[in-house]
């Protein structure tokens, strides 16, 4: 964990848009997260558990680098702990596609007005994402790609990490996929080809070859964002 205080939005802490928690508090904050994930609340939906976890992790910012990836992974794990990995994935995709808007507008408002505006936006995105995924073969594509990635992984955690790469980035190197899954280059290339082929004939088809995989699933998220973004105005 980081050993210094950090902030964002300005050159000095006094002018910063947001000052993250002091490094001395990080151990306690991360321990609190672990306790919640070990016994998540049962009186709210898994999506809300995951979405709140995502905001918490993003605002704790415990590392010098990789905080976004860590927050999304914890978000997926929160959804799984609450009984629905799919809702965790949806909340993680929301964090990725709205990252700029969340940091610049939504979270500062939430600090003043509470979580309701943030959760309303997250819920609207979840509804739009479900709508987009229901069309044509998209739901099948999502399920097949998720199964293929998890089936190739060394562990559920590795599978979730690789799946998040595909879901929350518009382009990933095959080498990244290989390293995340711990598989051979040949297996990673075969998996990349399988992912590409799944997008053929869908509204999210891609035309790309070479060392990178353009994620058609990212296009799904962008479409869902386009349907939701008006709620920020």
Q: Your description of this structure?
A:
The chain is mainly alpha-helical and 233 residues long. It has two domains: 7-132, no CATH class; 136-225, no CATH class. Helix content is 66%, strand content 4%. It has eleven helices and four strands; from the N terminus they run ββααααααααβααβα. It has helices at 26-38, 46-60, 67-81, 85-97, 99-113, 116-134, 138-152, 156-168, 174-181, 185-199, 216-228; strands at 7-8, 18-19, 171-173, 212-214. Strands 1-2 form a two-stranded antiparallel ribbon. Strands 3-4 form a two-stranded antiparallel ribbon. The chain is globular, with a radius of gyration of 18 Å. Residues 203-214 have low confidence and may be disordered.
**Mean of all residue-level pLDDT scores:** 80
Please give the share of residues in helix: 55-70%
Shape: globular
Largest beta-sheet characterization: 2 strands, antiparallel
Q: Give the structural class.
A: mainly alpha
Order of helices and strands: EEHHHHHHHHEHHEH
Beta-strand share of residues: under 5%
Q: Low-confidence stretches at least 5 residues in length (pLDDT < 50)?
A: 203-214
Radius of gyration: 18 Å
Overall number of domains: 2
Number of strands: 4
Oligomer: single chain
- Rounded to the nearest angstrom, the distance between the terminal CA atoms is 36 Å
**Spatial arrangement of strands, main beta sheet:** 1-2
Count of helices?
11
Keywords: ATP-binding, Nucleotide-binding
Protein name: Fic family protein
InterPro entries: Fido, Fido-like_dom_sf, Fido_containing
Pfam families: Fic
